[in-house]
Design goal:
By secondary structure, the chain is α/β, with parallel strands linked by helices. Helix content is about 45%, strand content about 20%. The chain has helices at about 40-50, 85, 90-110, 115-135, 140-150, 165-180, 195-210, 220-225, 245-280, 285-300, 370-375, 410-415, 425-435, 450-465, 480-495, 505-510, 530-560, 575-600, 610-645; strands spanning about 5-15, 15-25, 30-35, 55-60, 70, 185-190, 210-215, 230-235, 235-240, 330-340, 345-355, 360-365, 385-390, 395-400, 470-475, 495-500, 515, 525-530.
Length: about 650
């Protein structure tokens, strides 16, 4: 049985139809991608499902008792509460039960041996069972795991929400939603403020989570790895494809080809019938047959069996660079480059070269210096050390993700003609039509445009300058999927060099042939290949790290069980000092493991959880101790290997 049933729903605004006759069934636990051009009604459908707006007609029914959580693109987090307290509001019931358990624990102690004790014990047992059902004392660990996965560090926990950036607020709202444990998650562009590491974490979380999810996203890589159904909104109606994004794209392409072929075949047949009727209707021996054929055609038309020419509803930009965009052999050179701000090193000892025709992607977490590197190449910022050079004999086109190059007081046509003032207005209007600015759209003020529209203005101006090198900072931000596909196609045909920062892994796979990876501040590596190449490297590293950790733990426990530790005196050692060192490490490991057991036991003891501050301290100690223990085991293995040499 479906958990949400949408029956013949229609919705309009100011006389403009957004959704018409939408009928859908959403089932428990399924992951669905909701796609369509910007403004087609995706967010409207979410608002209808959660009841924020009523449909004009039709019904939306959710299964009794079903919980639905909705994350809008711009969630509203306010107040002076800290980030971790704001996120932790979802565990208010846990904390209330925890507080009551503490009170009951004291009352039981005070009434021991009296008739009141039995009733208090019974109440305590019922509450404790409810507490365990809601996650028990593990909720603090769960919360910190989710916050860490979404890119928050412990330093962020106590920041007041009011001073957080818009992106941080969006990530905090996403964390709170994931921790709510709702039956159905409605996610509107959840990866907008996530870097690649956080997006990879979210993919794994959603794929493994029991809740169902409907995801509005332009991240095609995520849609390929998480969802098993695509719902497309097009021309106010929905179409369902039981597959991921790549499967949908292929099925859609085949359906469109079939529709065109069927239309062409029927059109040819209809033309033949009409020609026969025109020739035969006045001939005595064939007039009756001509009238019969005409009646048949009339019935086809009345029954809606005459096919209309298939329309391509996905308006798509048309980007074309001239083929003479060539430059010198060397494009970019970095030698020992370094840069930092306020005592924080972003880039250190960077050596990197890029030659003509290469397409290189720069990736890494937020805040590692990707945009700073581009600005150094463009001479907007000077390096602290070393050389950063974009060769002077090249014409460069720069796309700024913040759109700072746009003048909000200009019209669209003025902003684009600024790059080619010799071009007439009529030529400029024809050109802008390729970027979906038609009619009076060209006279809109740039400052009043949406982010996606401003992106199209920048791209139009960029293409018109026909540069030899493109330097792009997050060029797919604000673009819908057709816009991204058009840009991919143009980048594939661009004869010059491309250096770009991007979090769009699908885009990276189709455009770049090399990656400059900045995994953390002060570090870099160069990878030959695209995102998929690097993803395979990351997977191998992660599996290797897990395997190494498991082997270390296994060796440690085996040595202790067999008495093979240094304390057992069974090792042959060339150095009594090394043996003493190994023995010291083993003693610290045993001490830490004993303390871990004590902490795990304390989590189930209400007396040890008297207040939230104390419980947080215990969980902090637990996490720190686990990390410290892993380091000790690694040191132990290194010592054993050194002793064996």
């Amino acid at each position: 049985m479906a958990s949400v049933i949408i029956q013949n729903v229609t919705k309009s605004y100011a006389g403009q139809t957004v959704l018409e006759g939408v009928t859908l069934d959403l089932h428990k636990g399924e992951k669905v991608g909701l796609i369509g051009a910007n403004g087609c009604g995706k967010t409207t459908l979410f608002r209808l499902i959660v009841g924020q707006e009523p449909p004009d007609s039709g019904t939306i029914t959710a299964k009794r008792g079903m919980s639905i959580a909705y994350l809008p693109q711009e969630p509203d987090l306010r107040g002076d509460a800290t980030m971790i307290d704001t996120v932790g509001e979802v565990f208010a019931e846990n904390r209330a039960i925890e507080a009551e358990l503490q009170v009951l624990s004291h009352q039981i102690s005070e009434t021991h041996g009296t008739p009141a004790e039995a009733a208090l014990l019974e109440r305590y047992d019922r509450l404790h069972a409810s507490f365990e059902t809601h996650g028990g004392y593990s909720y603090e660990v769960r919360m910190r795991e989710v916050l860490g996965g979404l890119g928050f560090s412990p330093d962020d926990y106590n920041k007041p929400v009011r001073i957080m950036s818009g992106g941080q607020k969006c990530r905090a709202a996403l964390a709170r939603m994931l921790l709510e444990g709702a039956d159905l998650l409605l996610l509107d562009e959840p990866t907008n403020h996530l870097d690649i590491d956080a997006t990879r974490w979210l993919e794994k979380y959603l794929a493994a989570h029991h809740s169902g999810a409907i995801i509005i996203s332009h991240d095609r890589y995520l849609l390929d790895r998480v969802v098993g159904k695509i719902i497309e909104i097009e021309a106010h109606k929905t179409s369902v494809y039981p597959t991921n994004y790549s499967g949908y794209a292929e099925v859609k392409r085949i359906r469109q080809l079939q529709a065109v072929r069927e239309y062409q075949k029927q059109s040819k047949w209809l033309a033949h019938q009409k020609d026969y009727i025109a020739r035969a209707r006045y001939k005595k021996d064939s007039a009756k047959q001509a009238r019969g054929r005409q009646k048949y055609l009339d019935r086809m038309k009345a029954d809606g069996k005459v096919l209309h020419k298939p329309e391509d509803h996905s308006s798509k930009m048309k980007l074309r660079f001239d083929r003479d965009s060539r430059g010198g052999e060397m494009v970019v050179r970095c030698e020992g480059a370094a840069k930092g701000f306020d005592g924080i090193t972003l880039i250190s000892d960077l050596d990197f070269e890029m030659t003509r025709g290469e397409k290189v992607g720069i990736i890494g977490p937020n805040g590692v210096g990707k945009t700073t590197l581009l600005r150094m190449l463009l001479r907007q910022v000077a390096p602290d050390a070393g050389e950063v050079r974009l060769f002077e004999n090249l014409t460069v086109g720069y796309y700024d993700q913040e759109h700072r190059d746009l003048d909000g007081s200009q019209t669209v046509i003025e902003a684009v003609r600024a790059a080619r003032p010799e071009i007439s207005e009529s030529e400029a209007r024809s050109y802008l039509a390729l970027f979906l600015f038609r009619g009076d759209d060209v006279f809109k003020l740039v400052g009043n445009l949406s982010g996606g529209e401003q992106s199209r203005v920048l791209l139009a101006r960029l293409v018109w300058t026909n540069p030899q090198v493109l330097v792009l900072d997050e060029p797919t931000n604000h673009l819908d999927i057709p816009g991204r596909e058009a840009l991919e196609e143009a980048m594939g045909m661009f004869p010059g060099s491309v250096l770009m920062v991007s979090h769009d892994r699908y885009f990276l796979d189709r455009v770049v042939n090399r990656l400059l990876v900045l995994p953390e501040r002060g570090r870099h590596e160069v990878v030959s290949g695209n995102w998929t190449t690097y993803a395979e490297i990351l997977t191998e590293r992660e599996e290797s790290a897990r395997g190494k950790q498991n082997r270390q733990r296994g060796k440690m426990h085996a040595a202790r069980k067999t008495g093979g530790g240094a304390a057992g005196g069974k090792r042959k050692s060339r150095s009594k000092y090394l043996a003493q060192r190994i023995e010291e490490i083993e003693a610290r490991i045993m001490k830490d493991e004993d303390r871990l057991k004590e902490l795990e036991a304390s989590f189930a003891d209400p007396a040890a959880m008297k207040d939230a501050d104390q419980s947080r301290q215990l969980y902090d100690e637990y996490n720190d101790l686990k990390s410290h223990l892993a380091d000790l085991i690694e040191q132990w293995e290194q010592g054993v290997e050194a002793q064996a040499d």
